[in-house]
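User: Fold both of these, please.

Assistant: Here is the first one.
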Amino acid sequence: MGERRSAAWFGASGRAGMIHRSWMRSQGFGPEVFDGRPVIGIATSASELAPCNVHLDRVAEAVKRGVWQAGGLPLAFPTMATGETLMRPTAMLYRNLMAMEVEELIRANPLDGVVLLSGCDKTTPAMLMGAASVDLPAVMVTGGPMLNGKFRGQDVGSGTHVWKFEEELKAGRMTEEECFFAEGCMARSNGHCMTMGTASTMACLAEALGMQLPGSATWPAVDARRFETAQAAGRRVVAMVEEDLRPSAILTRTAFENAIRVNAAIGGSTNAIVHLLALAGRARVPLAMADFDELARAVPTLLDLMPSGRFLMEDFCYAGGVPVVLRRLLESGLLHGDAITVTGRSVAHESAEAQCWNDEVITEVGEPFQPAGSGTAVLTGNLAPEGAVLKQSAASPDLLTHTGPALVFDTAEDYHRVADDPDLAVTPATVLVIRGAGPKGYPGMPEVANVPVPAKLLKEGITDLVRVCDGRMSGTGYGTVVLHVSPESATGGPLALVRTGDRITLDTPARSLTLHVPDEELAVRRAEWTAPETPYESGYTWLYRAHVLQAHEGADFDFLRGRRGSAVPRDSH
């Protein structure tokens, strides 16, 4: 290959080269590191404000070892940490900002390649989006799941058991003191959620896409092999610079088709849809909501993991991890084996020797945990013209086909204020409609769609209702919840026109979501509708609302789709 990109900084003659090298030497680097070796950026989202990412500085040290071993120069730099655990109103509001930051930091600095260190769920897609747009050699290293939660002799899952314990508390079967003790039992170590929530899903999909080293997605955050993986990634990215292997060669249509099918096989989060759509937009790969339904229908759910099943990520790891899923899908003709990974070799090659050590955790395609077609369904109809999604494996089978009267709330907060009211006009047949939770409306499309079942019904033993929302739900959540209704209510989508008492039909087998109101009446309501007022007249949130795309387009910014490359606009030196 020709002269390295970093040579424009460190190989420059005269004043420009002296400035760049001398300030780097203030950190203690000797002159030999400016000999033309690959300069590798290590983008770390470590932050004490993002508990899932807090250990990534240690992971970065392991990456550095690998880069040095391979003859590169490692330089770590911080990025935002969009942790859903603390950020308000939602980390999703800041995913695009983080993606923009990652892209611009890579482009603006003397880097030949980059290792991306992520943890909580939005950091993984944000980093991949930024790297795809700048298109320099890149390897993802996710931070790994927490150790399995333990409470009273049982495995408990982060997120998933939050909702379960809340239900028990509201039903009077658990005390506040017991809940307080249990919450510490869920979070036993560094790492992201150990259920198949969005963080675990996106880690697995980064591997399925080929952007993470084979077998590396599932090692627990505190396992020594997590750091071995990071060291190997540091070595590998140096070789990728030599080979000029870029994300554009890995993030192809076949890679995205593989990721969609793997998401179905692992019982992955519905949030993967909005993140993969956004990433495909950056990679210039045509991808639509309908693809997720069409490609997943033939794929059975192989993993018996929470929130859909019994086990947790530690169990998945020790059973063989993502390579076993890939091998089983490949042997059934459900994946593209020729898709290239960051190793430079194909998916088929990398998974050929994978062995399963626990068929209860990773079931066989012929005897799956759940049958083909039970993954995430994409619904359309007059209530969701551009689509909506439903995670069938986490829903109640008896509610997958359901007709009932709507009970409408303009915000999730409006519902929470009355959810415990014993006189709330709700029955098991009710369809709860929560609107105002879409990308523009909230703003940020928060994880509020799986609102708790009213306390009145919980005390009667009713644990699920059909819920319809233009927002998202945590990948650790469960229930018969229709999500990502598009277009959203804040833009005047049909969800904005629903009134309490209207009848709604969810017909999952037919992939339809229908509002039983005549078109003439809907036209009258539309004429009377006014857009909700917004207090945002400046700042980032104003920018977000002005430029965010709808859920079926990935909720990215309209001006960030596509690649912009690695060329620096101007050289001030």
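And the second sequence with its predicted structure:
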Amino acid sequence: MRLTPLSTTILLALSIASTSCLAGDAATNANTASTGTAGLTPKQANTYINDRILPPAIEWHGKSEALLLGVDDEWATPFEKDGLKTSPSYDETFAWLDKLIAQTDKLKKVSLGKSPQGRDIWMLIASSEGAYSPEVLAENGKPSVLVQAGIHSGEIDGKDAGMMLLRDIVLGNKGVLLDNANLLFVPIFSVDGHERSSQYNRVNQRGPVNMGWRTTSNNLNLNRDYAKADTLEMQHMLQAINEWQPDLYIDVHVTDGIDYQYDVTFGYNLAQGLSPASYAWLEKSYRPAIESALTSQGHIPGPLIFAIDNTDITKGMSLWNPSPRYSNGYGDTRHLPTILIENHSLKPYKQRVLGTYVMLEATLKTVGKQATKLKSAIKQDKFNYPARVTLTWKEVQQKRSWDFKGIEYHMEESPISGNEIVRWNGVPKLYPNLPVIGDTVPDISVTRPSAYYIPPQWTEVIERLHIHGIRMTRLIQPTEMKLQQYELSSPKFRSKDYEGRQTVKADAKLESVETKLPSGTVRIDTHQPLGDLAILLLEPQSPDSLLQWGFFNPIFTRTEYIENYAVEPLAAQMLKDDPKLQLAFDKALKDEEFAADPKARLRWFYQRSPYYDDQYQKYPVLREK
């Protein structure tokens, strides 16, 4: 789940098919008939400990309830056995899954690696051939869908939905789903956070009864870690993506924020991103099929929903253009079509789990039918190599508005906070023609270099690029080259730690240089499938560059100095030897602040002397045209 304050954002589908689904019929006050909730009075729920402080709930029933097994059935999941309101622990989850695996040759289980607390991050491979390795799976030629649950472990809908779906594939009538597609399923990604479970976690969410913690045991947010890859968990996942080569990646979350009618919302990259062919497939082929399946089963699907102002829906929604720190932004950058599911936190757990089941089943069907088109889109994006790459984007109002299926609310003054607070009343309401604001106009962009060069001493940077799967070679001997290098200035460090790092932004000026690169220098060709990812990780003004994440912070440290007693005679000699320098100094003295600062005046000469560190604030990653 992506949390921001009033500027929270939404990935809004803008195709004709999606728009028609969203707009609905304004004459039917918020389109409730298809959900089986028409005519029902919202009421205060009493299933969960936090129900009494949440907005009223609307009782829900849909066709997807037929997917549930009775509590006495031998193969009912722990979720089904315990009243559809709980989710099993780590040990209970894999005990049940191990029992299911023992019934079939279609399921295998592999560990992606250990968590910081020593738990295995398990992945199940479901294929009609019983593949147990990436090589064997690739032999069947079918597209693979990687489904990941519990990246924020309290948002665990995907785990229980996936367990039910695997059960029905193995023992029910859903085995045909594997005829044309493979399923890679990670029931719990943040395994340590999952076991920090309590009924007091996730206060804004309606179930399950006990929920895991948002961050890892190191208190890091995995859905901010895709680009920097600091966590063991993320490093294991990136290695799995590189080895298993999925064709579609699904990241299951539960959202916070405002109240509305949609129960299953999902989104992906934008048309303006680095994977336009994948976007076209997702928008024109995938979304219509998934929304149709969800609607037919009594759910209300929609794009990702994040309001500009949670207290005033009329201000509209934002079109989210995610950066590579997030799963869907990362997928766009590495040309892996990635779906971010955000189920609505205020919907009952049963409704959210069943909606996720329907979406996952429909995904396997759609990917199986559309395998050729999907693989073709991915290939187009991987070998597109745009001449210019956009690093940052500007906000503009979009041409299309949104008829939003919301919930009525009013504002009331709080005696507790002294502020006005929003009160949702549970009554469906259509908010027509809401404006949509999106980051879709290029701001900072760069020309595509043919390659980057990284000196061998930057071992942590090189290791992270290797974890991402970016191809690289090394110079076997010192080499003189004409390259480009950024000179950085005006660095601004974040005042507080963010995700375990001191982040920094700086102005960057590109200059031509002649340099001798040492042996062992890494060369990264940008004309490779992950070339665009390399660019966004290595361009200093990219918001998720390794520079901005703090991997190069030592270059901002001044390590050599000159004493005043030495710089005074040095400056006098420099002025005597260079009349032009005297003119430049006289011009500088016209700045009253500079003229009144003795240290600045001496530093001015030191910076122009041969004693000055010529690598200070020089970005050590060089570019080749």
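The longest strand covers residues 420-434.
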